[in-house]
Amino acid sequence: MRKIPTVLRRDPDNMRHVLPEVTPGCEWVLAGEGVPTRKYDGTCVMLDDRFDWWARREVKPGKSAPAGFVAVETDEVTGKTVGWEPIEQSAFFRWWEEALNVLADQKDPAVIGTHELCGPKVNGNPERYDQHVLIPHSAAEVVDTTEDGDPPWTLAEIEHMAKWAGERGWEGIVWHHPDGRMAKLKVRDFPKASS
Q: Is residue 73 part of a domain?
């Protein structure tokens, strides 16, 4: 999985936040060419077409990649390489195994593609699951955009969607273009309003 670009450009003075400017290459989001879905807050894993499971892994510059690591992309700015490591050597292996057993108990087949692993021992459990689960990204909840009117959307409407997601306790929104491109916006990309 390649790093998903943020719809709005990061503030060079505070990279945690965004500016009211579209990131070059993400104009399609405002044009309404993609489907907005819920962004889940867990860790990304993947079932490939050979039925092998992988965990997303980021390798910092100067650090050795783990055995079996498959690099996907290196960020030119940070030097970090994003890719996949065999799930068996991931720090999340135990929780993935538990989530896979939940699927088996429910008689749900695992879906080829990427999933979000969420649960009590993943990232502090912001999704508030009682047990570990695998959520196929292909089945992510679609965002109802009727409040924001029909596309094209303004920057204010895109920001409103992110705030709407925050009101529901979501991490953010991921837009999926029919050609496979994706873009994201996290609730925390915006500075908190002063009281």
A: no
Q: How many domains does the chain have?
A: 1
74: which 2 tokens?
Answer: 């290196």
Distance CA 53, CA 46 (A): 6
Find out whether 80 and 56 touch, Cβ atoms under 8 Å. no
Q: Is 159 among the domain residues?
A: yes
CB 155 within 8 A of CB 147: no
Closest to 112 measured CA to CA, from 83, 137, 84: 137
Based on its alpha-carbon atoms, the radius of gyration of the chain, rounded to whole angstroms, reads 17
Domain assignment present for residue 20? The answer is yes
What is the token pair recorded at 42? 């867990």
For 102-145, what is each residue's pLDDT tens digit?
877 777 677 899 999 999 999 999 999 999 999 998 889 998 77
CA-based nearest residue to 34, from 11, 2, 4: 4
Note down the domain range covering 2. Answer: 1-39+140-189
The answer as to whether 100 is a domain residue is no
pLDDT at 195: 44
Q: Residue 54 contacts by C-beta under 8 Å, 6 or more apart in sequence?
A: 45, 46, 47, 48, 70, 84, 85, 86, 87
- Which regions of the chain are under pLDDT 50? 194-195
CA distance 83 to 63: 14
CA distance 192 to 148: 22
